[in-house]
Amino acid sequence: MNEELLIIDRLLSYNDNLEKRDTASIESIVLHCTELPTLEMAGEYGERIVYEGSRTGNSGHYYIDRDGTVYRYVRDNRVAHHVAGHNHHSIGIEIVNNGRYPHWFHSTHQAPTEEYTETQINSLRKLLRYLKKQYPHISRLSRHSDLDTRKIKAEDNPAVLIHRKIDPGPLFPWKEVLAEWNRLNPFND
Fold first, then answer.
1. Considering the domain boundaries, does residue 141 fall inside one?
2. Does residue 173 sit within a domain?
3. pLDDT digit string, tens, across residues 85-123
């Protein structure tokens, strides 16, 4: 099946300030959800300067809106800041979803309620196939929550520890997406 994937470049203003890398060093893809209500708000968060030395911020490489449109915010040959300790060798994909917004760290607001759209998941599958074709050496697919397992005190009740990152969350069809990835990558560990 030959499916076209349209990727719209919407590069962050600091894309060229991000550290360059050889795309041969990319080993994995990390799936996230924005935990924000709109793509526009995710772009605003991405544009925020967090690292004064490099004048860069936190973002993924690709964003998938609810209607399935795929945007590139950071080029693959740049290191995006999307998951602590794994940025240099990964590509980050952000899927627009409310997640725990706006009370990310409240103890009573840890169960996301928004389903992912079928269109988003179909676009994600196309994007994964595209990236695997571009970079056949990529072998791992992870969720943000698999890589950042830190717990923090809940904002509303410091006696309760919550996961800092839960995305893409329990409503994401992880088993199905992982099974498709494993078909693309039959020699996976």
1. yes
2. yes
3. 999 999 999 999 999 999 999 999 999 999 999 999 999
